[in-house]
């Protein structure tokens, strides 16, 4: 695995490792206030990034060009903004960061949808 699939998969593994350590920390302290942020890190970071990696690995032509790079950038920035944003929202600080991360993550999935429509068949 190399190129875009590699980076999606490597970041997915990094996400789940951070998520697992975070989960252990929450269990050890009995403080689950930030569990929604933890869950989003695991779901978007591990599951979605792994699915992206497998798709791009199985359909290498789909990983070529500008659109997949836009997808990667939106997915990464969306994850990096959304997870702390959810944590901030649950701590009563600000919901705007979570909203921005949500929009970026949605845009990432829309771009992926376009890529699927272009390359998913045949």
Description:
By secondary structure, this protein is mainly alpha-helical. The protein has one domain. 82% of the residues lie in helices and 0% in strands. It is built from four helices and no strands. It is globular.
Which features would summarize this protein structure in a list?
122 residues; mainly alpha; 4 helices
Order of helices and strands: HHHH
Helix proportion range: over 70%
- Distance, first to last CA: 21 Å
Number of domains: 1
Shape type: globular
Mean pLDDT: 95
Number of strands: 0
Strand content: under 5%
InterPro entries: Cyt_c_oxase-like_su1_sf
Keywords: Membrane, Transmembrane, Transmembrane helix
Brief rundown of the structure:
The chain has helices at residues 3-29, 35-58, 66-90, 96-119. It is mainly alpha-helical and 122 residues long. The chain is globular, with a radius of gyration of 15 Å.
Question: What layout of secondary structure does this protein have?
Answer:
Blueprint: H1 3-29, H2 35-58, H3 66-90, H4 96-119
């Amino acid at each position: 695995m190399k190129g875009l699939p590699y980076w999606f998969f490597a970041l997915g593994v990094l996400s789940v490792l951070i998520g697992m350590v975070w989960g252990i920390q929450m269990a050890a302290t009995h403080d689950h206030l930030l569990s929604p942020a933890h869950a989003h890190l695991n779901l978007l970071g591990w599951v979605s990034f792994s699915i992206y990696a497998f798709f791009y690995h199985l359909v290498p032509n789909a990983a070529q060009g500008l659109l997949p790079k836009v997808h990667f950038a939106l997915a990464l920035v969306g994850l990096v903004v959304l997870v702390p944003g959810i944590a901030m929202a649950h701590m009563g600080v600000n919901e705007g960061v979570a909203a921005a991360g949500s929009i970026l993550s949605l845009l990432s999935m829309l771009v992926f949808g376009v890529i699927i429509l272009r390359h998913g068949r045949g």
